[in-house]
């Protein structure tokens, strides 16, 4: 409330400056006052929490818009409710709250709000449903553990001379391992191991097959004389070695696959290995296990013994080792010696009194090493035994108490998500990852496949619509970040990796009344670090049929419904109006206002936009009158009145005293 002067008495008019004299102001006396204006105080009131979801308070400027069917009314009183028809109303007046009702896309079933459309009644029906949607996209995030499988280790062994040797074992996965375990996703997993000495020289390799608990079910090794040979022509390769009969294993260095394993003979210091899998230009590890050799026409230089010097061709002397030896007298084919002989540094001596320096003899050398050999020979008297069953215990052959149990972390990780067909039928979809590690050109490869709990066959589709796959392979770079994923194929014998991106899976849901479910898998957010497996599905865009269970209003005035399928969706949005001069609104009772000639037009929009305030759900705005301040002012006015009343009494007392003094 403001006041103004009612009448004025002018005692002296104002005078303008003249020459060296300045001007003077008018002298006026006010005579009484009158009411000037009664203004509305449109400031923010305090809030009172109610905990009721349809109690809304406006924080900032703005008014709720109400309609009685004939016109709009505006209020800041936010006690709302829903009537029997599901219409959002103003509790005290029954007027309908205005805003926008969400529109449902008939194709996707998604609801959206267009605040550019005219406002209207907001209806929230109790039986409102969310239609079923088929899953077309599923996204994964999280980590795959890089330290899984059989982890590398080192152990130290001692040879016959007391010298210690440290051997390092490294495990990897190759095409041969996939073939050996009879497919990429079998329960047992095969690993190729390689053993290196202190100078990082390969001294042996083989494989070990473990079950899901890391228990050995099969193993083998190749640790004899090894040669690295590059084939010069298809179908054959040649190696140089001492003469004799050998057991030979040829391993493709690129794939780790054993392409040849058979007996062969070296003549004239070389051996030719023929096999259709040998490809010109490829590099191979050739392992030669000496089995036996027969040297004829030996005439000893000294009676009673035969030595390496008596063999005219040094290539007929077997590799170092222990052999069962027979000496046959060629004159009568009688065996005159049979025993164990050591060959060291190409030197040996066979001693027998029946040997004459005038006779001619045949000497047979037969290896004492039985095959398959299941140990790594490090040095004379120093070897490491490879476990053939039970735990992954690698031990020094001559000292079993010196052992190392290789650490095994399951390379397999499985997680699941529920997906839906167009009818809303749910399917539990599992994705299984198995770590390969370094595989071909891939740095950190994992193979993966998808299957459903109900057993629907899965089709894998690449970017070129190719479908000849049994799963996929995902690769990570040295920083543990996703690089790409391709399809993989297994024909029962060969494991191959495609070169076209694969991210789509498909399965037939016709037995549930639907057609084909096609899902794009987004694996780009996966990482591979040394940490626990945490990869999981964080999003899929399908859903089952849902029925509205409850709803709430957020700060923007959006009405969010919660459905029985666990999802939420937009149902509508409450509108707010602002005015250029809200104090100019006309009150019509019940805390309602209508525009006046001086309020300006209502500017209607969404909360939090265009200068409009935001909503506080579960609260109501209280009066904007500061009671403490108003009480203070009242007390001050009361005391002022009391003081003014005392002035007259005091003056009367003083005059009485003056009269008394004259007496």
TrEMBL record:
Transmembrane segments: none
Chain ranges of the Flagellar hook protein FlgE/F/G-like D1 domain: 57-134
Database matches in Pfam families: Flg_bbr_C (PF06429), FlgE_D2 (PF07559), LlgE_F_G_D1 (PF22692)
GO biological process, one term: bacterial-type flagellum-dependent swarming motility
Protein name: Flagellar hook protein FlgE
Function: A flexible structure which links the flagellar filament to the drive apparatus in the basal body.
Record's subcellular location: Bacterial flagellum basal body
PANTHER family xref list: FLAGELLAR HOOK PROTEIN FLGE, FLAGELLAR PROTEIN
Domain Flagellar hook protein FlgE D2: 400-542
Keyword Transferase in record: no
Keyword terms, alphabetized: Bacterial flagellum, Cell projection, Cilium, Flagellum
GO CC annotations on file: bacterial-type flagellum basal body; bacterial-type flagellum hook; cytosol
Flagellar basal-body/hook protein C-terminal domain residues: 617-659
Protein family (similarity comment): Belongs to the flagella basal body rod proteins family.
InterPro entries noted in UniProt: Falgellar_hook_FlgE_sf, Flagellar_FlgE/F/G, Flg_bb/hook_C_dom, FlgE/F/G-like, FlgE_D2, LlgE_F_G-like_D1
Main location: other
């Amino acid at each position: 409330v403001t006041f103004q002067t009612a009448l004025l008495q002018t005692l002296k008019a104002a005078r303008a400056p003249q020459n060296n004299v300045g001007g003077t102001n008018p002298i006026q006396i006010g005579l009484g006052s009158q009411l000037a204006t009664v203004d509305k105080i449109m400031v923010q009131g305090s809030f009172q929490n109610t905990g009721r979801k349809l109690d809304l308070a406006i924080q900032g400027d703005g008014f709720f818009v109400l309609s009685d069917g004939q016109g709009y009314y505006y209020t800041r009183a936010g006690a709302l409710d829903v009537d029997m028809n599901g219409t959002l109303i103003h509790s005290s007046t029954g007027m309908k709250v205005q805003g926008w009702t969400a529109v449902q896309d008939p194709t996707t079933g998604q609801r959206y709000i267009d605040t550019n459309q005219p406002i209207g009644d907001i209806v929230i029906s109790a039986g409102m449903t969310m239609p079923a949607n088929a899953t077309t996209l599923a996204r994964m995030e999280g980590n795959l553990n890089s330290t899984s499988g059989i982890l590398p280790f080192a152990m130290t062994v001692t040879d016959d001379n007391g010298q210690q040797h440290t051997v390092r074992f490294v495990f990897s996965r190759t095409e041969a391992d996939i073939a050996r375990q009879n497919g990429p996703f079998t329960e047992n997993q095969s690993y190729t191991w390689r053993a290196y000495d202190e100078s990082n020289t390969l001294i042996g390799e083989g494989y070990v097959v473990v079950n899901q608990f890391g228990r050995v079910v099969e193993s083998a090794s190749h640790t004899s004389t090894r040669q690295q040979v590059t084939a010069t022509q298809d179908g054959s390769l040649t190696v140089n070695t001492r003469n004799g009969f050998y057991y030979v294993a040829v391993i493709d260095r690129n794939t780790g696959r054993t392409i040849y394993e058979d007996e062969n003979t070296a003549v004239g210091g070389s051996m030719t290995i023929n096999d259709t899998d040998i490809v010109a230009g490829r590099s191979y590890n050739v392992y030669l296990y000496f089995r036996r050799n027969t040297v004829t026409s030996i005439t000893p230089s000294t009676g009673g013994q035969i030595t390496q010097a008596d063999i005219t061709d040094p290539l007929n002397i077997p590799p170092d080792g222990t052999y069962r030896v027979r000496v046959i007298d060629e004159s009568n084919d009688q065996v005159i010696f049979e025993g164990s002989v050591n060959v060291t540094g190409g030197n040996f001596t066979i001693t027998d009194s029946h040997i004459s320096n005038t006779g001619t003899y045949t000497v047979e050398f037969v290896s004492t090493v039985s095959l398959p050999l299941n140990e790594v020979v490090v040095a004379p008297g120093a070897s490491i035994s490879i476990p053939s069953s039970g735990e992954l215990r690698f031990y020094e052959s001559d000292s079993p108490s010196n052992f190392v149990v290789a650490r095994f972390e399951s390379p397999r990780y499985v997680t699941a998500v529920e997906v839906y067909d167009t009818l809303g039928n749910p399917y539990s979809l599992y994705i299984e990852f198995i770590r390969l590690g370094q595989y071909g050109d891939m740095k950190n490869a994992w193979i993966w496949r998808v299957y459903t709990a109900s057993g629907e066959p899965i089709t894998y589709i690449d970017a070129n619509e190719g479908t000849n796959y049994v799963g996929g392979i995902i690769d990570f770079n040295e920083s543990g970040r996703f690089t790409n994923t391709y399809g993989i194929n297994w024909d029962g014998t060969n494991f191959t990796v495609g070169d076209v991106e694969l991210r789509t899976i498909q399965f037939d849901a016709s037995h549930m009344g639907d057609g084909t479910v096609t899902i794009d898998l987004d694996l780009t957010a996966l990482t591979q670090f040394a940490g626990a497996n945490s990869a999981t599905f964080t999003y899929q865009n399908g859903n089952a049929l849902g029925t509205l269970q409850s709803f709430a209003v957020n700060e923007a005035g959006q009405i969010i419904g919660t459905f029985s399928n666990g999802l939420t969706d937009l149902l509508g949005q409450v509108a707010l109006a602002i005015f250029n001069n809200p104090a100019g609104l006309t009150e019509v009772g019940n805390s309602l206002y209508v525009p006046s000639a001086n309020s300006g037009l209502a500017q209607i929009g969404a909360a939090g936009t265009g200068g409009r305030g935001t909503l506080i759900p579960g609260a109501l705005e209280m009066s904007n009158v500061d009671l403490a301040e108003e009480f203070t002012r009242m007390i001050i006015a009361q005391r002022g009145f009391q003081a003014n009343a005392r002035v007259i009494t005091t003056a009367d007392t003083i005059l009485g005293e003056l009269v008394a003094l004259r007496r």
